[in-house]
Design brief:
By secondary structure, this protein is an alpha/beta fold. It is 45% helix and 15% strand. It folds into 2 domains: 6-179 and 367-383, Glycogen Phosphorylase B (Rossmann fold, 3-Layer(aba) Sandwich), CATH 3.40.50.2000; 183-365, Glycogen Phosphorylase B (Rossmann fold, 3-Layer(aba) Sandwich). The protein is globular and about 60 Å long. The structure holds uridine-5'-diphosphate (UDP). Uridine-5'-diphosphate (UDP) is lined by residues 15-18, 20, 211-213, 238-239, 270-271, 274, 294-297, 300.
C-alpha cells in the first residue's frame, strides 16, 4: 500500500466508534500521516501508543460543546472557526489530503480549503437527519460538502442515503465500511472468559451484553425492559456517557433498581477488553432506537462468535442477514427483543449456528484489510485527479 500523506482531523478525543475507526486508519498510515485533534483525551493516548503523530489545536469550550442539533447559535462561533481553519491550512502544508473524521472537523477543514489547504475528504459517520442535526447544521455541512469535498466516504449505504436525501451529491459518495482485526477476538482464552464470569458471580446463568455509550437513542432502557420477565438472565452494560448524557444514566439506574432486576444488571463502565467481555456473553444485543450509521458492536459480536440481536434499521441491515448471521428486531420494540433473547436462550444450537455464521460473514465483509483497501481505492480517485 502506498503511504499517502494524510492529515486526519477530528474534534473529539473520547473513544467513540468513529474515533476507534480513525485509530485503525491512522495506525495504518502512521509512517507518513498525522492526526489533528481539537482537544486532548484518550484517543490521543491510544494514537501515540500506536506510533501515530498527534497535534492538538485546542478549541474553545463553546465550540466543542456546540450541539450538532443546535440551531443558528452556531453562527456565533464563526470567527473562531475561521481562525482554526487558518491553523489547519498551516498544519496541512506538505500533506496530500485532509481527512475530516467528524462533522465539526469537516466544516472547519472545508473552510481551510479557502485558505490554501490540500483536497479534503469527509468521512461521514453519522446519519444526517433532523433527529440528530438541526436544519441549519445539515444545510451548512451538505453545502460545504457539495462545494469543497473531493469525496465523501460513508460508513454504510444508510449513511450515504441520508446524505443524498439531505441534498448531498450522490457522485461524491463511496462506502467504506469499518474493518476489524479478528485476531483480537480469536486470541481470547477460556481462562480469560472464566475470569470475567467468575468476577460477575453468575454461575452458568445466560449473560446478555450491551456495549455502547449511554445515550437515550442507544436504547439501554429497552434491554432492561426486555429482561424484566426473563428472571434467569444477567446483563452487562459496558460503556459510559461520553457526551454529557448523565441524566439518562440516572434514569437507567432507577429502572435497574426494580425488584425484578435486582442483582442481575452489571455496570462495567468503559472498557478496553471488549473481545474478552463479548466472548464471556451468550448473546450480544444492539438496541438503538434510531437507525445506527454503522454499528461496530454488531460486527464485534459476530467476531466473538456470538448470536447478535440488533435493531432492524440503518447499518445493521447491511451487517445482519436476519435468521442467518444474527437476528433483527423492530427498533424500539422491547417485547420483540425479549422474544429473540428467549428463543436464543432456549435453543443453544440455534445461538451457536447464528454465532458461527455471523463470524464467517464478519471476517469476509468487515476485515481490516477490506477497510484499508476500500479506503485506499477511494483516496486514489482523489489523488489521481
Ligand atoms: N466500546 C469500547 N468500550 C466500551 C464500550 C464500547 O471500546 O466500554 C467500543 C465498541 O467496542 C465499539 C465502539 O466503542 O467498537 C462503539 O461503536 P459503535 O459503532 O457501536 O457506536 P458509536 O460509538 O459509533 O455510536
Amino acid at each position: 500500500m502506498k503511504q499517502h500523506k494524510i492529515l486526519f482531523v477530528d474534534h473529539i478525543a473520547a473513544l467513540g466508534g468513529a474515533e476507534l475507526s480513525l485509530l485503525d486508519l491512522a495506525t495504518a498510515h502512521a509512517q507518513t500521516s498525522k492526526v489533528l485533534l481539537f482537544q486532548d483525551g484518550l484517543l490521543r493516548e491510544r494514537l501515540e501508543l500506536a506510533g501515530v503523530q498527534v497535534t492538538i489545536i485546542p478549541a474553545s469550550k463553546t465550540m466543542l460543546n456546540l450541539r450538532t442539533s443546535g440551531g443558528l447559535n452556531s453562527l456565533a462561533t464563526i470567527p473562531e472557526l475561521w481562525n482554526m481553519a487558518g491553523m489547519i491550512a498551516q498544519e496541512a502544508k506538505g500533506y496530500d489530503l485532509i481527512l475530516a473524521n467528524s462533522q465539526k472537523a469537516f466544516i472547519i477543514a472545508a473552510l481551510a480549503t479557502l485558505r490554501g489547504s490540500p483536497p479534503i475528504v469527509w468521512y461521514l459517520r453519522d446519519i444526517i437527519t433532523a433527529k440528530h442535526f438541526s436544519r441549519v447544521n445539515r444545510r451548512i455541512a451538505v453545502f460545504l460538502a457539495n462545494q469543497f469535498a473531493s469525496k465523501v466516504l460513508v460508513n454504510s449505504q444508510a449513511t450515504g442515503k441520508a446524505f443524498v436525501a439531505a441534498g448531498g451529491k450522490q457522485d461524491l459518495l463511496d462506502v467504506v465500511y469499518n474493518g476489524f482485526d479478528s485476531r483480537r477476538f480469536d486470541t481470547v482464552t477460556i481462562q480469560d472468559i472464566n475470569k470475567v464470569r467468575s468476577q460477575l458471580s453468575i454461575g452458568n446463568a445466560p449473560l446478555v451484553g450491551l456495549f455502547s455509550r449511554f445515550s437515550y437513542w442507544k436504547g439501554q432502557h429497552l434491554l432492561l425492559k426486555a429482561v424484566e420477565e426473563l428472571p434467569q438472565v444477567h446483563v452487562i452494560l459496558v460503556g459510559k456517557a461520553l457526551f454529557g448524557e448523565e441524566d439518562y444514566v440516572s434514569e437507567l439506574k432507577s429502572l435497574a433498581s426494580k425488584p425484578e432486576l435486582q442483582g442481575r444488571i452489571h455496570w462495567l463502565g468503559f472498557r478496553n477488553d471488549i473481545p474478552t467481555l463479548m466472548k464471556a456473553c451468550d448473546i450480544i444485543v444492539h438496541t438503538s432506537t434510531e437507525p445506527e450509521p454503522f454499528g461496530r458492536v454488531i460486527v464485534e459480536g459476530q467476531l466473538a462468535q456470538k448470536a447478535v440481536v440488533a435493531s432492524a434499521a440503518g447499518g445493521a441491515l447491511e451487517i445482519i442477514n436476519d435468521g442467518i448471521t444474527g437476528y433483527l428486531f423492530a427498533s424500539g420494540d422491547a417485547i420483540a427483543l425479549r422474544q429473540r433473547i428467549q428463543k436464543l436462550i432456549s435453543d443453544r444450537n440455534l445461538a451457536h449456528t447464528l454465532g458461527q455464521q455471523g463470524y464467517v460473514s464478519a471476517r469476509k465483509n468487515f476485515s481490516l484489510e477490506n477497510l484499508l483497501d476500500s479506503f485506499e481505492q477511494a483516496l486514489l480517485e482523489v489523488l489521481e485527479v
